[in-house]
């Protein structure tokens, strides 16, 4: 018999599901501690966040905390794996489009830094003047992975736990009988499918259905295309991907949103199990995406 708890977090929903109900309190305490530390390091809605301290400098060359180093490493790795389709240096553009919680809209920067100009070595961050980081594309997924690692290493946790942070899911330990049953669906009325997430697996969904706003006469979503610095096309309603970690799964799903109709071939070439829901609700999958339960979500 499993037990679960959910709560609001970062304009989304966090959820823990434990195989042993007696471990739920411990899991929630760990979650509160880990996620509070993540927020203190990189929230764009906190003036005292560690990442904000590096903005506005002529040049960044400074040590960072272990948690921020981990989040930045995941973000830079995402950019490297996707050749910049997922870029953590788009904070200035998110502000221009009104998605970063800025006090006012800033003018566009003609010559701007990109992820290629940023380096992190031995816990020390180097970046050129004018960089405005935003870890929205990978931060939540990295936080889920970080929490799972703490749960896995805590001697008080002996059974399986499923972590969900706003659609980024990762399992650790032995799941319940029948495995972790996951309903892959972005809300009521959306095309859905139930799959089984195996122990240690991760699943992430990127969506263009939420965090939308009017920009002039047009409604846009929050996922930007670094190639033209504007919102990506509305080709896909959602893209769900499986991988060994939430960071890897979210990197693939975000890149797919940016790629539009090129996404299925890109995902297939990389062996990513993926399910894509088009604007007209047509569902496409890569060859490694599972059939409905009892098939398993496996990562390449």
Q: Overview of this structure, please?
A:
The structure is a single chain. Helices cover 26% and strands 27% of the residues. It is of the alpha+beta class. The protein has a domain at 50-128: ApbE-like superfamily (T-fold), CATH 1.10.3980. α1 packs antiparallel against α4 and α4 (139-153) runs antiparallel to α5 (246-259). The chain is globular and about 55 Å long. The model is unreliable at 94-111 (pLDDT under 50).
What descriptors fit this protein?
300 residues, 27% strand, 6 helices, alpha+beta, 3-stranded antiparallel β-sheet, T-fold
What's this model, at a glance?
With 300 residues, the protein is an alpha+beta fold. Helices cover 26% and strands 27% of the residues. The strands form 5 sheets. An 8-stranded antiparallel sheet has the order 1-2-6-7-10-15-16-17. The protein has a 3-stranded antiparallel sheet with strand order 3-5-4, with helices on one face. The protein has a 3-stranded mixed sheet with strand order 8-9-18, with no helix packed on it.
Count of helical regions: 6
Which fold name is given in CATH as the topology of the domain at 50-128? T-fold
Largest sheet: 8 strands, antiparallel
Instruction: Tell the overall outline.
Output: globular
**Category from helices, strands and their pairing:** alpha+beta
Secondary structure tally: strands: 18
Task: Provide the β-strand percentage band.
Answer: 25-35%
In the CATH hierarchy, the architecture of the domain at 50-128 is: Orthogonal Bundle
Low-confidence stretches are: 94-111
The average pLDDT score comes to 84
Give the termini distance in whole angstroms.
31 Å
Name of the top-level CATH class of the domain at 50-128: Mainly Alpha
- What would you report as the Rg, rounded to the nearest angstrom? 19 Å
How helical, in percent, are the residues? 25-40%
């Amino acid at each position: 018999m499993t037990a679960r708890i959910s709560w609001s977090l970062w304009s989304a929903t966090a959820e823990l599901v434990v195989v042993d109900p007696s471990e739920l309190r411990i899991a929630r305490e760990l979650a509160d501690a880990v996620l509070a530390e993540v927020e203190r390091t990189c929230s764009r809605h906190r003036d005292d966040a560690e990442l904000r301290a590096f903005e506005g400098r002529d040049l960044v060359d400074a040590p960072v905390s272990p948690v921020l180093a981990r989040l930045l490493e995941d973000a830079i790795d995402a950019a490297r794996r996707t050749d910049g389709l997922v870029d953590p240096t788009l904070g200035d553009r998110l502000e221009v489009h009104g998605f970063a919680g800025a006090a006012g809209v800033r003018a566009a920067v003609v010559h701007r830094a990109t992820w290629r100009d940023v380096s992190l070595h031995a816990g020390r961050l180097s970046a050129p003047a004018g960089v405005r980081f935003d870890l929205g594309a990978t931060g939540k997924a990295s936080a889920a992975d970080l929490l799972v690692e703490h749960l896995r290493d805590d001697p008080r946790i002996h059974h399986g736990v499923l972590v969900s942070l706003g659609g980024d899911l990762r399992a650790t330990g032995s799941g319940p009988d029948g495995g972790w049953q996951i309903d892959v669906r972005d809300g009521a009325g959306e095309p859905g499918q139930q799959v089984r997430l195996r122990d240690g697996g991760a699943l992430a969904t990127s969506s263009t259905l939420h965090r939308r706003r009017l920009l002039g006469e047009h409604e846009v979503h929050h996922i930007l295309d670094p190639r033209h610095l504007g919102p990506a096309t509305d080709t896909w309603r959602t893209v769900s991907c499986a991988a060994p970690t939430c960071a890897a799964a979210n990197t693939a799903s975000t890149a797919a949103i940016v790629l539009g109709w090129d996404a299925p071939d890109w995902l297939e070439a990389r062996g990513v199990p993926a399910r894509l829901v088009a604007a007209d609700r047509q569902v496409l999958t890569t060859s490694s995406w599972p059939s409905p339960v009892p098939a398993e979500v496996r990562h390449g």
